[in-house]
Design a protein that fits this description.
Length: 434
């Protein structure tokens, strides 16, 4: 949350109704929207203020924070927000974020919403199932042992074995907190293998059938519990990395003109290129405003290859680069080099085709496509046209229509956020991890 007071940003009183806040928001958007020549930073503050104050529950929490009271429960004004609230994902307890108006003709009659954000996988999945399985296994494994021990005396070896098996069944993020957990786990695996051998019918005939059944339940059950708790632990790591706040509110990662992960080996980007990256970033932020689940990552890297910008929505990935050129018709040849009016352009090869191939090789099962945005030397001037064959891996876009065309391409997935994809782009791909 920004340090600015949301009420001061919108220039309304804290007692303002939702309709008054809506009117102030729509009035300010016309003035500060980047497409109208406004300030991008101020636009984001206005958007953040609207996102908070238009939602009665977020506003109530924000008012409590401002007043410094955690006990007061002000009655939110629901006259407008409840009418426009789309149903959120049943697997989450967070409402979807607002989508700011996009386009240069002023805000629409109603604040823009592209529907609720559907996050996959859902938060907290596997937790309940894993805990239930662990509890059931403990009852089935330890119950008979405790009962027989109370009748006939305690068996220390069996007790230690059950304790080691319990450690095996714990979720990895719990197990790592235990001292000597690796050795205990190893002993438990050896013990489980020994129990499984004892339960085989042709190994020993002296064991009663009920004991064989109990051993089978203990060994087979711990395998099932181990799988479920491992799944829960992996999902928990994802929940920590891409939490609800990031899934619903954080739409931009990194800074234009800078690598997402600075390992100290990347060559500095020239100042002119940084300005071009920022120019493109302002355009791409307009796409994010229109599509509530779309995410924009600047300086994303796959292995050692860094791309200018990456946009994701659902299972679609847009690899974006940009360049500045004079008036003309631009296209790409079969090798990914830029042609202007059918002739090689001195602006060079943006390397976008190689970047698309690298991301496609990594993100199997996802649709990856490259977009090269051609800016005129002076924003708003120059006749830039593009000509791209159908089905090409990289598409040239004129700057004046790039935001609309990217929005159209991402829109089919614009209300879905794949957290595994976002996690891979942010944390694993830069280090070459799988």
């Amino acid at each position: 949350m920004s340090g600015a007071d949301h009420y001061e940003v919108l220039n309304v009183e804290r007692t303002a109704t939702t309709d008054e806040i809506k009117s102030a928001y729509r009035r300010l958007v016309r003035q500060v929207h980047p497409d109208q020549g406004g300030n991008a930073a101020l636009f984001r503050l206005v958007q953040e203020a609207w996102t908070t104050l238009s939602d009665p529950y977020k506003r109530a929490a924000y008012d409590r924070k401002l007043s410094g009271s955690a006990t007061a429960e002000p009655e939110p004004d629901t006259s407008y927000a409840e009418q426009t609230r789309p149903r959120s994902d049943p697997g989450t307890d967070n409402p979807p974020t607002e989508a700011a108006p996009g386009g240069s003709n002023g805000p629409p009659a109603e604040p823009a919403r592209s529907g609720s954000i559907r996050v996959v996988p859902r938060f907290g999945r596997w937790r309940r199932l894993a805990l239930v399985a662990l509890a059931v296994w403990l009852v089935l494994a330890a119950g008979p042992y405790v009962y027989s021990s109370l009748q006939e005396g305690w068996s220390a070896p069996i007790g230690l074995l059950l304790a080691a098996l319990t450690v095996i069944g714990l979720p990895p993020h719990w197990r790592r907190r235990l001292p000597l957990h690796r050795r205990i786990t190893g002993c438990g695996i050896v013990g489980a293998f020994g129990l499984a051998v004892m339960a085989l019918p042709f190994v020993s005939t002296s064991l009663p059938n009920i004991l064989r059944a109990w051993i089978f339940i203990v060994v087979a059950g711990i395998v099932v519990v181990r799988v479920l708790t491992a799944r829960w632990s992996a999902a928990r790591e994802l929940d920590v990395a891409i939490d609800r706040g990031a899934a619903y509110d954080a739409n931009v990662w990194g800074r234009p003109g800078e690598p997402l992960v600075d390992d100290g080996y990347s060559a500095p980007i020239p100042g002119s290129a940084v300005l071009r990256h920022r120019r493109t970033a302002r355009m791409l932020e307009d796409v994010v405003v229109r599509l509530p689940a779309a995410k924009l990552i600047h300086g994303a890297r796959v292995g050692g290859l860094t791309v200018d910008h990456l946009m994701i929505a659902g299972d679609r990935v847009a690899v974006v680069a940009s360049m500045i050129g004079p008036s003309g018709t631009y296209t790409l040849d079969l090798y990914g080099s830029v042609l202007r009016d059918g002739q090689p352009f001195d602006g060079g090869d943006p390397g976008l085709a190689a970047a698309v191939a690298a991301w496609q090789a990594r993100l199997k099962g996802f649709t990856v496509r490259g977009f090269l945005i051609i800016h005129p030397a002076v924003e708003g001037q120059g006749q830039i046209t593009v000509a791209t064959g159908s089905g090409a891996a990289v598409t040239c876009l004129a700057a004046r229509s790039a935001a609309a065309e990217l929005t159209d391409w991402l829109r089919p997935e614009g209300d879905v956020l794949n957290r595994w994809l976002l996690y891979d782009v942010l944390y694993q791909a830069p280090l070459g991890l799988r």
